Amino acid sequence: MDKLRVAVVGAGIYGSNHLAAYTWCPDAELVAVCDLKPELRKKVEDQYHVPTYEQVADMLEHEDVDAVSVATPDPYHAAPALEAIRHDKDVLIEKPLATTLDDARQIIAEADKHGVRVAVDYHKRWDPASIQLKNELADPSCGRIVRGYMSMDDIIDVPTKWFSWSHDSSPVHFLGTHCYDLARWYTGCEVEEVYAVGTKRMLKGMGIDTYDTIQAFLTFADGTNWTIENGWVLPHGFAKNNDGRTQIMCEHRLLRVDSQNRGVETFDDDKCHTPNYCFMQIFDGRPVGFGYDPIYDFVRCIRTGAPFVADAHDGLEAELIAGAVHKSVLTHEAVRIER
């Protein structure tokens, strides 16, 4: 197969990473970009010298495209993904697959109908620390998991300054689905029941009607219980834009990961910084790191027919958990997941 001809929908904060990845990837060619904002389209045209469009349908009618990356904000994945699928294109969707179960199921149904494949960018599966834990857990001498704990939090700048759409999302969709996906990946089974509590105080007081934090208790089919905590109200002065920790107790091993401080520290006149050097770097002009790896892997899987590391089924399962978490927060009751 020749180079995979890819179009990107969404040229904002994360979409810019897709543009860089496809431009460098030797097996892909960036052929077109779609974004609603004219200033971003102009920036893309000047930097990448590819045609840009305001509407996905218009782009797909005029350009020869093999696959589409959807990197729009979290609540707005469904419409561009469905448009691409209905044009018979394979699709990579930034996590989450969707922020409603109806949208997630419609994406899967349309993909099945049109015979195309959908991957979801749960890039934490490519994190070297996650791979290490996955391999440890696969070692029979580790024994069965007894319990699990995971937290992932962002600084308050994320919902208040980075995004204008925070009120249409939550720390569950933006952060929690990463954790739910990893816990499923580690255990190899599905969540059966959820109990969760949430707090709306800081952000609501700032006019943003979304949760500050949500804590969820997940029971898996193998009887394992996991506590997963997510929020996006860490102080602005925190050493990194996010904080993440994992602890898994097994019968014969205790596994811990500190994703916040990876061993590199820098200090300036304001504070200490702990950069995530494993995530995204530019080295000798090449985008490298586990933030780019899922994009490269998408190209590989489309060209070779290999299965995706994280596909639409994984995206649906994460959304099933997210939906149950939100329902539990509202009802103050445990929620059984119905499939």
Summarize the structure.
The protein has 339 residues and is an alpha/beta fold. The chain is built from eleven helices and 17 strands. The protein folds into two domains: 4-116, NAD(P)-binding Rossmann-like Domain (Rossmann fold, 3-Layer(aba) Sandwich), CATH 3.40.50; 125-279 and 317-336, Dihydrodipicolinate Reductase, domain 2 (2-Layer Sandwich).
Structure class? alpha/beta
Largest sheet: 7 strands, mixed
Dominant shape: globular
Number of helices: 11
Low-confidence residue ranges? none
Strand percentage lies at: 25-35%
The helicity comes to 25-40%
Q: What is the top-level CATH class of the largest domain?
A: Alpha Beta
Widest sheet: strand ordering:
12-11-7-10-9-8-17
Mean pLDDT: 97
Please give the CATH architecture of the largest domain: 2-Layer Sandwich
The named CATH superfamily of the largest domain: Dihydrodipicolinate Reductase, domain 2
User: What is the gyration radius calculated from CA atoms?
Assistant: 20 Å
End-to-end gap:
38 Å
Description:
This protein is of the alpha/beta class and 339 residues long. The protein folds into two domains: 4-116, NAD(P)-binding Rossmann-like Domain (Rossmann fold); 125-279 and 317-336, Dihydrodipicolinate Reductase, domain 2 (2-Layer Sandwich). Helix content is 36%, strand content 27%. The mean pLDDT is 97.
